Fold:
Amino acid sequence: MKNNKLTIMVGALISSTLLVAGAASAQENVYVNAGVTQHHTKNTDTASITGKVGTQINPYFGVEAEGGFGVNEDTYQGVKYKNKGDLGAYAVGTAPVNDKFSVLGRIGYHHTWEEAKAAGLKVKNDDGSFAAGVGAQYMLDTNNGIRADYTRYTEQKVDNFGVSYVHKF
Structure:
């Protein structure tokens, strides 16, 4: 039953993101990000390659979807942990400071697939969580910039620090 709910949720997330991005592309407010995110828990630090696609509906509000895949593992008390992948959807509030620099806040839902290995045993976990974060973005020119952000997965108690390249269409 849990996998059916997850499949429906992920399908709805992807569909709604594609619809919003498709509608917004006519307005030329679509952006993509590509970067690295560090996932920090009380006992482990892992990283993933992360991508975002979103649309800025107006200067102060947008929506974005995020996905990533793990690139390393960490060991705690003899157990190896790895973030296998994650998906998220967020509402994003933006406060432009000037033409090039803005600060942002985002809230949404994030789902993570993890794996733990020890003594020949492998345990997989997939879990979702409410997520909230803050960040800043600096545009180098009209279409290209950099973004740094922090997001907290509340139920999983994971702190995420990301840096990414931004491209606006």
Observations:
- Helices lie at 2-25.
- The longest strand covers residues 121-139.
